[in-house]
Amino acid sequence: MPAEFPPVEAPRLALRVLMMPRDTNHQGTIFGGIILAHIDQAGYIEARHHGLHRWVTASIDRVDFKAPVNVGEVVEFQTRTIRLGRSSVTVQVVVDAERVDGNWARVTEAQLTMVSVDAQGKSIPFREHGQREHAEKPA
Ligand SMILES: CC(C)(COP(=O)(O)OP(=O)(O)OC[C@H]1O[C@@H](n2cnc3c(N)ncnc32)[C@H](O)[C@@H]1OP(=O)(O)O)[C@@H](O)C(=O)NCCC(=O)NCCS
Question: How far is residue 31 CA from its own chain's centroid?
């Protein structure tokens, strides 16, 4: 039986980050590695919705940098689970920048695969191992 089924969840906000001067490259725009690091974090945050395991990034399958990001822009990382495997989940991340004039631009799209692992780093089925409920967030 295939251990996967179609996604049922809508995109959700994983991260919202203000881009700072320290995040720039030699051309003065935001360094792609900074965006990648946040994409990686967003993937982890999305994976945790499927279980409070240890999760590692197995692959960043594709990243499309569509438009530059600039200092002072607020960047949102929205995530959506697009595949649930045995020990892996595949996550789509879309990145939008709020320009300083208040307009929004889709700047990056990515897809990555996160794998649930045990304390030794061995992959484990995320539905069967170490499931803990997320606690209600206090008001
Ligand atoms: C991710 C990792 C645990 C996979 O180990 P493995 O021995 O290939 O594990 P398995 O063969 O049991 O595969 C486990 C799952 O990972 C998936 N997987 C493994 N490598 C993958 C890759 N490169 N891309 C996408 N999925 C991958 C498999 O398809 C499988 O999915 P499923 O269980 O949902 O069917 C291992 O490669 C690892 O520890 N990598 C380093 C992770 C890390 O440190 N990330 C941070 C980088 S700085």
Answer: 17
